[in-house]
Amino acid sequence: MTSRLLSLVRNTLFSPLLGTDVVQMCAPLLCTLSIRGKAKKTQGSTRNKHKNTPGKHRRLIKEDGEWVERGNVLVRQRGLYYYPGQHVTVGHDKTLRALEPGFVAVSLEDIEPAPSSPLAEYVASGNQVKRIFVHVLPLPRTGKYRLSELI
143 — phi, psi (to 5°)? Predict the structure, then answer.
């Protein structure tokens, strides 16, 4: 807006309501009005297109009682919600994998934190801390051994 147009707006709109003294005091403030531009671009934006990304399938992959082979993924997770038990290893992204072939067992167990852990004082004061553990229970080995004297 030009200054002439602003003064016209100022005089017609505000002077009957406020009086000329108030309008003259507020004149510098009214001259700083600006016109708002467009809120959106005219062409399509290339940003923020990833709103509907596919799921990452983070869950318990193998259920309790299922048979797994060595190296099978048992759990995909972000933090340590499921803890590794017997014959289970943790990957760099907290994925739990089987170290031995066997059956999966999921259990809720008390933990005994290390003395340097923040939970050590809490457990030492008589409280219990339970976590979900995932174990792989291998089949018992059968004795197929023969003495060298019998061969």
Answer: -80, 100
